[in-house]
Write a structure and sequence with these properties.
Blueprint (H helix, E strand, L loop, with lengths): L1 H7 L11 E6 L2 E7 H10 L3 E6 L6 E5 L1 H18 L5 E6 L5 H16 L3 E7 L8 H14 L4 E10 L2 E8 L29
Parallel strand pairs: 1-4, 5-6
Antiparallel strand pairs: 1-2, 3-4, 6-8, 7-8
Length: 200
């Protein structure tokens, strides 16, 4: 279990092997004392001695309630995880002779992906003899990149690998942000709009 793994990361109280430790904690002056003294101080406060830096000499121990300490560590880890922005890679596939309607449909999708902060992997797939149109595929991808320049930056120019020509586009910071919806208009007075288009 995750909680058990976290508990095993720290030695507490009598599990600590050092004879002397540097104690820190709320309302505690940082100083080096014997482990016995640290344990007595913790006992007097109804708290635990938690070894937080075992690889220094002497090891640093915090005097704190152990369950509270674990809660703080868990909360800190959760906050750090939340700060890490997750970037997904969305794929957009073309044929070498994609028509304008299909192209515009895929362009809108790519704009949405980049606005949401995702990367776009655009590629042209060449079936059979369509590999003869590889220049056409490259022109298509470069046009795609140009049409998305307000939303993203090309991080890999078109590269032909086997039957695929691939290009990567990364989102621009703050670009293409969806506009905030305007505040809804105030409803008109009931008798103001009676003549025009009554509601069914």
């Amino acid at each position: 279990m995750k909680g058990d793994n976290q508990k095993d990361q720290y030695r507490i109280n009598e599990q600590i092997r050092a004879r002397e430790v540097r104690i820190v904690g709320e309302g505690i002056e940082s100083r080096v004392v014997s482990l016995d003294v640290a344990l007595r101080i913790a006992e007097g406060r109804d708290e635990d001695v938690v070894e937080i830096s075992p690889n220094v000499n002497p090891p640093v121990c915090r005097i704190i309630d152990y369950s509270k300490f674990l809660y703080q560590q868990k909360k800190k880890a959760k906050e750090q995880k939340a700060k890490q922005t997750r970037i997904d890679v969305k794929e957009i596939r073309f044929g070498p002779q994609t028509d304008d309607h299909d192209y515009n449909f895929k362009l809108k999708h790519a704009q949405g992906f980049l606005s949401d902060g995702d990367k776009v992997k655009a590629y042209v797939f060449f079936r059979g003899r369509s590999i003869l149109y590889k220049e056409q595929g490259e022109v298509l991808l470069l046009r795609f990149a140009q049409d998305l320049e307000d939303y993203g930056t090309v991080t890999q120019m078109p590269i032909l690998e086997g039957k695929r020509m691939t290009m990567f586009i990364s989102p621009k910071k703050g670009a293409g942000k969806k506009p905030q919806p305007a505040a809804p208009a105030k409803p008109k007075a009931a008798d103001e709009d009676n003549d025009a288009n009554p509601q069914s």
